[in-house]
Amino acid sequence: MAEEKNDDAALPPTEMIYYSYEGNFELECNSSKIVGITKDGDDDTVEVFLDRTVMHAQGGGQPTDKGTITYCQPTNNSEVVIAVDKVTVNRATGVASHRGKTTNALVCLPAVGTPVRVAVDADTRRLLSECHTAGHVVDSAMAKCGKLMRPTKGYHFLDGPYVEYEGSIVADERPQVLKDLQAAFKALVEEDIPTKIETLPEAEANEVCNRIAKNFDMKDFGGGKEVPTDIRVVTVAGFPCPCGGTHVRSTGNLKARKWGILGMKAKKGVIRIKYAKTHKTEQLQTRLHAVSLQY
Ligand SMILES: [Zn+2]
Questions:
Q1: What is the pLDDT at residue 76?
Q2: Cα 148 to averaged position of ligand 1 atoms, centre (Å)
Q3: What is the mean pLDDT of the segment spanning 216-242?
Q4: Distance 97 CA to ligand 1 centre (A)
């Protein structure tokens, strides 16, 4: 069956609650309404459009939030829960789509205007926020080590996160630079530096983000248009940059799971810094040690 495509051009842009500092920590919203909904195929998969949401839409190197949308079915007064597994946003229209399956049979689609409760899966969100924040701490550690290279990609997924920078580091220097970066990262976590999330006028965002090095072009972040726009600026470990992701309140929050820098890879003018929850590497080292003891 052909996939039904919802024309979201007619819908209002979705208010992304996590964009503000306090909204970044809101995990539930009881004041959302359905502005559009379509059913996909014959099963109970639906695509829901809301006026406002607490869920983070996949993008900017951060995976989608998962969670639930709950509403009351007026025909029989029963609660319908939609288990949302993918949130995306149309960057051109600002409309977010929540895709998921209803956990109970859908008698009919809810009407536009139906009030809903939106809840984020808190454990996953916390982990993804830590992962994304740790990626920014890598940026700050790079700056601390005098490596003011332009960040070109952030991959803040849990299956092997990394940040990439344009440029190169001489092969002989790499082991020492890696050691310095690991130490700088650790020190920034120890310092327990609060995260800042602000939405600034474009000119101000441009100035704030390019104060340390001229590495950010506002055009890459929705700016550079005829009419200047506002840009969301996130400052982690003292290092500001344009960002649309979710974060933890302070670098100290990365301590419990021992986030840290794992390694460095150099390839064709790109330096990739890999990072991880390092208790994983400790486990690995213990295992390797155990193996070496056997022989
Ligand atoms: Zn970011």
A1: 80
A2: 17
A3: 94
A4: 21
| Under 8 Å between Cβ of 132 and 125 | no
CA of 244 from ligand 1 middle (Å) equals 6
- The confidence score (pLDDT) of residue 10 equals 86
- Reported as a single tens digit per residue, the pLDDT across 275-295 is 999 765 555 554 554 444 443
Q: 110-152 pLDDT, tens per residue?
A: 999 999 999 999 999 999 999 999 999 999 999 999 999 999 9
Q: How far is the CA of 113 from the centre of ligand 1 (A)?
A: 33
| b/e 139-166 (16+ beta carbons within 10 angstroms → b) | bbbbbbbebebebbebbbeeeebbbbbe
Q: Where in the chain is the domain with CATH 2.40.30.130?
A: 9-120
Kindly give, in sequence order, each residue whose CB lies less than 8 Å from that of residue 245, ignoring residues fewer than 6 positions away.
56, 60, 61, 62, 129, 132, 156, 234
pLDDT digits (tens, 9 = 90+) for 180-208: 999 999 999 999 999 999 999 999 999 99
CATH number of 125-291: 3.30.980.10
Measured in angstroms, how far is the CA atom of residue 233 from the centroid of ligand 1?
Answer: 9
Cβ contact 206:174 at 8 Å: no
CA of 180 relative to ligand 1 center, distance in Å: 22
Q: Ligand 1 centroid to 243 CA: how many Å? A: 4
Compute, in angstroms, the gap from residue 122 CA to the centroid of ligand 1. Answer: 19
Chain length of the chain:
295
The rounded Å distance from CA 139 to ligand 1 centre is 10
Within the chain, which residue ranges are assigned CATH 3.30.980.10? 125-291
Ligand 1 centroid from CA 284, angstroms? 29
- The verdict on domain 9-120 having CATH code 2.40.30.130 is yes
Name residue, tokens 């790079």.
142
Is the model's pLDDT at 212 over the cut of 90?
Answer: no
